[in-house]
Structures are given as structure tokens and as C-alpha cells.
UniProtKB/TrEMBL annotation, chains A, B:
Its cofactor is Mg(2+). One of its GO terms (molecular function) is UDP-N-acetylglucosamine-dolichyl-phosphate N-acetylglucosaminephosphotransferase activity. It is found in: Endoplasmic reticulum membrane. It catalyses: a di-trans,poly-cis-dolichyl phosphate + UDP-N-acetyl-alpha-D-glucosamine = an N-acetyl-alpha-D-glucosaminyl-diphospho-di-trans,poly-cis-dolichol + UMP. It comes from the Eukaryota. It is a multi-pass membrane protein. Pathway: Protein modification; protein glycosylation. This is UDP-N-acetylglucosamine--dolichyl-phosphate N-acetylglucosaminephosphotransferase. Belongs to the glycosyltransferase 4 family. It comes from Amylocarpus encephaloides. Its EC number is 2.7.8.15. Keywords: Endoplasmic reticulum, Glycosyltransferase, Magnesium, Membrane, Metal-binding, Transferase, Transmembrane, Transmembrane helix.
């Protein structure tokens, strides 16, 4: 807090002395750890943590420094929920994405290093690697990936990079909602293609209650790719529509990331050669640097925002989760952590599919007099159709909407269908950061509940915690 | 030509009827070929040709359709070498890059398909693949890549995608020359890292005359990575500085691409299991779709330009060549095809390294009265230092520059140090398209000469045409 106050203006593009010092120490410490890891027998997880420190420091500085450059290039937006609506840089998620991509690329030799030594000593003949793998797996922190995983790791990077390019395009050209819905689908193509070529396992374990009908394993084939495609489309879009108030996009992504990391650690602390260990190590390698860049962005995006994240960030974050869930083979667990986003999506459906009129922006309404956020409304210029009227009135009775009815009994306005507006309908107007905090607490509680269910009741559906398909 | 004239204005964003019909037929034919290839026993090279047709059709249409969108987003520029200096869309290379990346990603299963069949039948156990490879290599068009090449193919895509992101950033933010020089270096990191992890061969064959001193093979180690890094920085930048007149960037890239394709075919027509066949197949798979998207861009960018290509295209094109040369292990041949660019770079050095003042743009000067291009000049506000004066006068005597000297004998202006200006000094003012055509003819002749030398005199330096390092 003191650091923030030493800055002359909120959009100042220089780092304060304290900030420079802290970031510099963090970077030096991280570099020292990395150098140490690379020389010694290696500990990729420690290296990944250090790289995440670097990711934080570099994206923090770049977000600050590049502010004026972004403004000049027209990447800027007005914060509508403030008394003084000044313009601030937009699309800062692009900086995070680029730093993230660079970091996870440079990280590659750490989990894959042992292979190199074997490979080069054989002069380009990689068959020798297969024999050395066994010796490599002699401890938790020593654990490295077999070489064959490189292609799937690269496809993950490729997919995240694709969504970043397309996200930047979206932010630049302001693509319409019905088109941009499919953008993450296009970006997921590298992931699906490499999965097809490289791994190709498309059977799933059938839940116990369904086994009498379907058997133990079910070959999904094409449907499995459709499922992965759907996950890749859902995660980025669902973060993109739970948005509109300062800090909510980054914060919800950070909550999901932290919950996934906790879930990963649960597997790593299990007795060692658990079949899913590799998947969860992979997940950590992807998530730790993500947390690094996201924290840096969060610092600048939390109320009152000094930068906006842009659609780029929402897509980028959602795709990191989708990739981790798909390649880590825990997409069902992932969806448990997306429950608030799923609810928001279902609740939004009437507007997304145009049953109810959908304005360009549905963010809560800022009341400049009280300085509080209130539910935003869609005005009905013509009375809605009878069936829609009935539906809206039922939702109103169920406290799932607030409608205003004139003396004739016709609906003149209804609150917009978003979780944020519903929260304000339920608990009354509140300040922007208060609203964000409450939503995040709700999300965290539901997330922990999801993980608890996952690890305690999954055995009712499947006879063991994980099948060794990897 | 008739097609162009039917358009109402040069920036019209609709396809004419003839164009729609042609592109549609091309797309349908391509799709039919691809469907056929995928069902049958397969012919990746034929599929690659068909994909290139698709690449042409889709980038052609998108370049046309997206014109107004790009203009609205501020991606536009003025054509300075015309009487009517109207604004046209800029950075259209980004469209080519995105289409290209999508196409070569979707193409992956074709060269790698046989592996999948083996892999999935084994239920995720990929060891069985190793045994089937031998059976797969039973004919030229049947030839497919071993699975282990997937990582290096993916790293190629990743690198081209990185340069595209950074190129778009450059076009958006107009980065200064001394910074942007290193942008391709950053983009080459995925390539170098995966080379390090995946292949790691860093010894080179020593030319015969040097063997008494160095031995037959020389282990370069770190220096080899520096060499690849230098190639990756040089190729994109050298295309980016041989620029400034309508169509020159795309045309020179097309000439290089066609020469490389001819070189690749030379290897494919050799008796079959030539050790370098794989490398040159890989090269073709990368280059054919590149030619597809570039031809579409060329159509719109040739004199008089209706779109500009942007730095994005120059970087993208140069990086495709660098990747092909590095992963195909024919970087020396590649450099033979870059001789005009190398000469332009050396000739430009005095201005690039600020021995001589360097204006923001050094493109030839357009004389609106004659409608011809003339050499552009840098004016010397103060007389140059004696040593520089001497140098400039010597160059003038050698006909490698034109300087204007006032009555005192001091230099008042000198032509800018670019190949295009030098050409105009030598052969006098000419129209923009004439200048471009002559430069391209010169480039083509030098290129064929380079290939001729490569294949006829290489045996004087190396005892066989290629060493089987792959």
C-alpha cells in the first residue's frame, strides 16, 4: 500500500524506488536459483518456482513501462464505474501472455534435461534414452519427463500462443460476440491435432453405476475430441463473461490456479510412483509461471484499476486451464473448479442466446452519487412476449431476477442476467471492490467444496483414484 | 488484369464474381484432394500442395475482406510514391501468418499419420511404432516422418508463431530499429531450445582444405547455437531492409522460396534413400503453404499496392526461411540464396551503424513530375568528418554512391545506402514496378548461380554432397 502511495499518479509509467529494489532482488534470487538448479543434478520444480518469480518481476515492470506505449497505439479504455472516468491502458493481458510464453519455453530444458545428456553422448541417436529413464526417476525433485512428452508440452505452448495471437486480434478489431465465441476453438487445434498424432487414447473409464450398460472402458473416438474442443471453448469464454468490474477477471483466474496447484500438490505428496504424478507435475510447470504473471497483472488491475486486462487475458487464462486439464487428464476436476463460471454461463444464457435483449455491456451500473454498484438493467421498449413475461415474472418470484412492472402490469425493465448483477439483487448495492471480494470468497468456498467431493466421493463412481492411462 | 479492372475502387473489400468463382473452385478442388489423400494410403506431398491451394484461397479472401477492419483499427499507411497519396491497409502480413500457421498445424497428421495407427492400436504404447517405420518407407510419395520428428516440426511452428506475435507488436508500437533488430532472436528461442533438448548435434563437417588443421568433424557446441541464432536474426532483418517500394518484400521472398523448392526437388529426384530426403521433404511442407499465402499477398501488394505487408510479413517470411535452413541442415545453401540481401546489408552498414546519418525512411524518392523513382539522399547539414568525406568520395569514384559537392568542395548530400538507390544511381530513374522487376531478375539470376555453385563445386570442399547427420 505504501508503495502505491509513493507514486505521483496512478498511471505513472515508472517503477518506484521500493518497487525497483524488490523486483531486482526477486529477479537476482530467481536467477541464482535457476543457475544452481541447472548446474546440479537438477530440481525442475524448484526451477519452475524461480522462473515464476522471474515471470512476476518482468511482467510487473513491463506492464508499468508499456502503459504509455499501449495508450499511444490506441489500446486504451475508460473505466465507467468511477466518478472520474479517465482512460487507462487496455489489453495488458498481452504482456502477461508474451512473458509467460517466453518463460515456459526457456523452461523446457529443465524437465527434459536428462534426456539431452543421454542423447548427445550418443551423437544424435536417441534410442539410448529409453534405457536411462529408469535411473532418472530416483526421487521426487529429481523427477523428469520422458522425452516422448516433449511434443505434448510443445502443443500446449502452441495452443496458448495461438489464443494469445487471436485474443490480441479480438482486442484490436473488437470482434462480435457470436464470432468470438469460437476463437478459442480455433486456438485449440494444435492441441487436438498433436493429441491425435501423439497420444490418440480416446477411451474413458465408465462410472461404476453405468458399467452394466456400457462396460468398463468406453471408446469415445471422435466424441472425445469434441469433448476436448468444448472444454477449450468453454474455459476461456466463461472467464470472459464473468467480467466487468475491476480485478474480477484476474482474481477469479488466480483462485482457479491456486486451487489447481493445491490439487496437484495433493498428488505429489502421495506415495511416489502414482500414475498421475507426471500429469500433475506438468500442470504445476504450466500453472506456477501463470500465477507469476497474473499476480503482476492483478497488482495493477485490482480496484482502482490502473490497467485493463483485455479479452486477451481472459482467453489466455482460460486456455492455460483447458490445456492443463486436457493434457493432465483431469478435465472433470477442472470443471468442478469452474462451477461459478458454469452457473454464470447458464444464468446468462437467456441473453447470450437473445431470448432477452442483450446490450453491448452488461456490467453492473455505477451510481456516482452513492459511489456504489447497482444491478444494471435492460429496458423493454416494447413489452416482452407473453411467454417471456411469464418466465421473467417467475424468475422474479424466485429471487433470481428483479423486474420493474408499470401500472399496466407490463415489464418495463429487468436486471441483466449475470452473476454479478444477481449478487447485487440479493445483497444490495455495494462498492466495486467489495463486490469483487465477495464473489471471490464464494468462488473459493465452492472450489474447496468441489475438491473435497472429488477426493472423497469419487470412489463411489470409480474404483480407484486414477487410471494409469499415461 | 481484367479482374482488377472490374473492381470499382482499388480498396474495395469485396471479391469480384470471377474471383469468388476461381477461389471457390480452387478451395473445393483442394479439399477434394485432401479428403482423398487422408482416406487412401496417403501422399503427404500431394496433400501439402492441396493445403497450399487452400492457404492461397483463404488468405486472398481474408486480405480483401479485412481491409476496412484493419483501416478502422488504425493499421493503415500512406503510399508515398504515388501522385495521389491515399491510405491503404497495413500489416496484411499478419493475415498471411495466421492462415499459414493454421494450415501447417492442420497438416500435421498427414506426414505423421502412419504412426498414429500403430500407436492407437497399441493403446497409447508408442514403442510399437519403432518397428513399423521400416514398412512405411516404401515409396517416395508414401514417405512419412518418424514420430521423433514431431517435436522439431512443432518447434518450427512455435518459432514462426512467435515471430508473428512480435511482428504484430512491432507494427502496432513502431519499435525503434536498434531494438527491433533483436526481435527475431527472441522468436528463435523455441527453435534453439528444442534443438538443444531434442537433437543436440553441434558438430560440423570440416571443409577438406581445412582438415589438416581441424580434423574431419569439429565440435562447435555453444558456437553452433550462436550460429543458428545469427541466421534467425539475419534472415528476417535482411528482408526487412530490402524494402520500401511496392511489392519488393513479397516478391523477393517468393523468389527465395521458389529457389529453395527447386533445390528441395533436386534431392527428391535423386535415387531414393538419400540421407537428406527427410530434411528436404520437411522444407517443402513448410515452403509450399508459404508460397500459397505469399502469392495471395503479392496479388494485392504488387504495383500499384492495394495493401501494405508490414514488418510482420518480412519477419514471418525471413523466419520461415531460417527455420527451414536450420532444421533442414542446409543453412549454407540458404545463405547462397540471400546474396542480394547480404550485399544490401553490407552496403547499408554505414547508415545502420550511424557512421553516416540515417533518416527514418530510406526508400527511393518519388518524382511526381516524371512519375519515376530517383535515388533518395541524406542531406549533410554540417560537412562530414574528413575521414567520412574521403570514404564517400572514394565510393563516388567507384560508382557505389552519388554525392553532391558544393563550390567549396564540401559534400552537401549523398544518396542513401540501399541496393535500390544504388540501382537507380547506376541505371537512372525508372518507374516503381520497373525497378522492382529488375531487382527481382537480378536476384533470380544470382540465386540460380548460387545453386549451380552449390551442387557442382561443393565436392571440392566436402567429399560427399551430404552427411547423414539426421
Amino acid at each position: 500500500m505504501t508503495i502505491r502511495q509513493t507514486m505521483t499518479t496512478p498511471t505513472a509509467s515508472a517503477l518506484s524506488f521500493t518497487e525497483t529494489l524488490s523486483l531486482l532482488s526477486l529477479s537476482i534470487a530467481s536467477l541464482a536459483i535457476i543457475a544452481n538448479t541447472f548446474q546440479g543434478d537438477g530440481a525442475p520444480l524448484v526451477a519452475s518456482l524461480a522462473f515464476s518469480g522471474l515471470a512476476f518481476a518482468s511482467s510487473f515492470s513491463m506492464i508499468r513501462w508499456l502503459g504509455p506505449t499501449f495508450m499511444k497505439a490506441g489500446l486504451k479504455g475508460k473505466d465507467m464505474s468511477k466518478v472520474h472516468k479517465k482512460e487507462i491502458p487496455e489489453t495488458m493481458g498481452a504482456v502477461c501472455a508474451v512473458v509467460y510464453l517466453l518463460i515456459i519455453t526457456v523452461f523446457i530444458p529443465f524437465p527434459f534435461y536428462k534426456d539431452i545428456v543421454a542423447a548427445t553422448s550418443g551423437g544424435g541417436n536417441r534410442d539410448v534414452v529409453l534405457e536411462t529413464i529408469e535411473h532418472v526417476q530416483n526421487g521426487r525433485f529429481l523427477h523428469r519427463f520422458p522425452h516422448s512428452k516433449l511434443a505434448s508440452y510443445l502443443s500446449a505452448i502452441l495452443t496458448v500462443q495461438s489464443i494469445s495471437i487471436l485474443g490480441i486480434g479480438d482486442d484490436l478489431f473488437d470482434i462480435r460476440w457470436r464470432h468470438k465465441f469460437f476463437i478459442p476453438g480455433i486456438a485449440s487445434i494444435p492441441l487436438l491435432i498433436v493429441y491425435f498424432v501423439d497420444f490418440g487414447v480416446t477411451h474413458i473409464v465408465v462410472p461404476i453405476p453405468l458399467r452394466p450398460y456400457l462396460g468398463e472402458l468406453l471408446q469415445l473416438g471422435f466424441l472425445y475430441y469434441l469433448y476436448m474442443f468444448a472444454i477449450a471453448i468453454f474455459c476461456p469464454n466463461s472467464i470472459n463473461i464473468l467480467a466487468g468490474i475491476n480485478g474480477i477477471e484476474v482474481s477469479q483466474s488466480l483462485v482457479i490456479a491456486f486451487l489447481l496447484v493445491i490439487n496437484d500438490c495433493y498428488y505429489l505428496l502421495n506415495p511416489y510412483p502414482h500414475p498421475a504424478t507426471d500429469s500433475h507435475l506438468f500442470s504445476l510447470y504450466m500453472l506456477l509461471p501463470f500465477i507469476g504473471v497474473s499476480l503482476a497483472l492483478w497488482w495493477h488491475n485490482w480496484y482502482p484499476s490502473r490497467v485493463f486486462v483485455g479479452d486477451t487475458y481472459c482467453y489466455f487464462a482460460g486456455m492455460v486451464f483447458a490445456v492443463v486439464g486436457i493434457l493432465g487428464h483431469f478435465s472433470k476436476t477442472l470443471l468442478l473448479l469452474f462451477i461459478p463460471q458454469i452457473l454464470n454461463f447458464i444464468y446468462s444464457a437467456p441473453q447470450l442466446f437473445r431470448v432477452v435483449d442483450c446490450p453491448r455491456h452488461r456490467l453492473p451500473h455505477f451510481n456516482a452519487r452513492t459511489n456504489l454498484m447497482e444491478p444494471s438493467v435492460t429496458e423493454w421498449q416494447y413489452p416482452p412476449k407473453p411467454i417471456v413475461t411469464l418466465g421473467l415474472k417467475v424468475l422474479h418470484q424466485l429471487h433470481l431476477l428483479r423486474v420493474t412492472i408499470n401500472e399496466d402490469g407490463t415489464i418495463t425493465e429487468s436486471t441483466n442476467f449475470t452473476l454479478l448483477n444477481l449478487w447485487l439483487v440479493w445483497f444490495g448495492p455495494k462498492r466495486e471492490d467489495r463486490l469483487a471480494t465477495e464473489i471471490l470468497i464464494m468462488q473459493t468456498i465452492i472450489g474447496f467444496l468441489g475438491l473435497f467431493i472429488r477426493h472423497n466421493f469419487a470412489l463411489l463412481l470409480f474404483e480407484k483414484d486414477n487410471l494409469s492411462v499415461l
